[in-house]
């Protein structure tokens, strides 16, 4: 329970620190950019598909004894256009988090670096851009391999559970917890990667605080499903994940200070 409450506490700290002047630009800039991009796409596709639906119904009008149905047809066409906007909103909400992660990823690395330096007082390791590019690429390949084969295995288990009566209620829970673990790993790894901690070492550290990482990732995953909240949860999670790494997982005197609670 101490790890669970600590994870929630770090999220609260992340939310508080996201509003601080030194970190605020790394929260606002990606958020504004994503609102403009996704808002523009939502408006464009809504207008296009809605116009197409209205165009299909244009010229369809009953005459004679059936003319009394025309108001109902107009109502159905209008309802179909509204439904298009609602479906599009749900679709964009479901893919929004993925888009945010792709677009805002460079900002998140810098954000984790700022939080780490501010928390530890230690500069980042010096590294040339070509060396950093190669290192990050190898790490992403390693990370992809880590979750890919496990995701396939867990998906198989989930599918088996799904077809077992009563037990099948656990299928979605298993997949949610697995996704929460991955998300927690991803947000904590920003700080570990900045300090050039090997991926395998980072994983071993995560396992030492398994319930903290799982709680952290699962709460973040749940919050990403909420409209508007998913606009700000990513930078807050990066800040919280960096604090978890610095205060709970980094070696004393190595890539961070001795584990401790609290802010900077």
TrEMBL record:
It is found in: Membrane. Its main location: membrane. It is a multi-pass membrane protein. The keyword Phosphoprotein does not apply. The chain crosses the membrane at residues 26-45, 52-69, 75-104, 145-164, 170-192, 213-246. Pfam families: EI24 (PF07264). InterPro entries: CysZ-like (IPR050480), CysZ/EI24 (IPR059112). Keywords: Amino-acid biosynthesis, Cell inner membrane, Cell membrane, Cysteine biosynthesis, Membrane, Sulfate transport, Transmembrane, Transmembrane helix, Transport. The keyword Iron-sulfur does not apply. PANTHER family: SULFATE TRANSPORTER CYSZ (PTHR37468:SF1). This is CysZ family protein. It comes from Alloalcanivorax venustensis ISO4.
């Amino acid at each position: 329970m101490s790890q669970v409450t600590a994870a929630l506490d770090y999220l609260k700290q992340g939310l508080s620190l996201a509003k601080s002047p030194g970190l605020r630009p790394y929260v606002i800039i990606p958020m504004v950019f994503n609102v403009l991009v996704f808002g523009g796409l939502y408006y464009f596709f809504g207008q296009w598909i809605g116009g197409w639906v209205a165009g299909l119904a244009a010229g369809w009008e009953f005459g004679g004894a059936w003319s009394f149905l025309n108001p109902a047809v107009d109502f159905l066409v209008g309802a179909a256009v509204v439904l298009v906007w609602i479906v599009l909103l749900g679709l964009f909400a479901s893919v929004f988090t993925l888009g945010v992660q792709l677009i805002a990823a460079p900002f998140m690395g810098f954000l984790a670096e700022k939080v780490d330096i501010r928390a530890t007082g230690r500069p980042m390791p010096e590294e040339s851009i070509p060396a950093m590019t190669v290192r990050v690429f190898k790490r992403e390949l390693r990370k992809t391999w880590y979750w890919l084969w496990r995701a396939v295995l867990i998906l198989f288990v989930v599918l088996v559970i799904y077809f077992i009566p009563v037990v099948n209620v656990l299928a979605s829970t298993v997949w949610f917890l697995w996704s929460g673990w991955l998300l927690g790993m991803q947000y904590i790894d920003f700080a570990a990667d900045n300090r050039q901690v090997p991926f395998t070492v980072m994983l071993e550290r995560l396992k030492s605080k398994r319930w903290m990482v799982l709680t952290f990732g699962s709460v973040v995953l749940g919050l990403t499903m909420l409209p508007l909240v998913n606009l700000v949860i990513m930078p807050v999670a990066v800040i919280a994940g960096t604090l978890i790494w610095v205060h709970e997982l980094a070696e004393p005197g190595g890539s961070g200070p001795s584990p401790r609670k609290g802010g900077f």
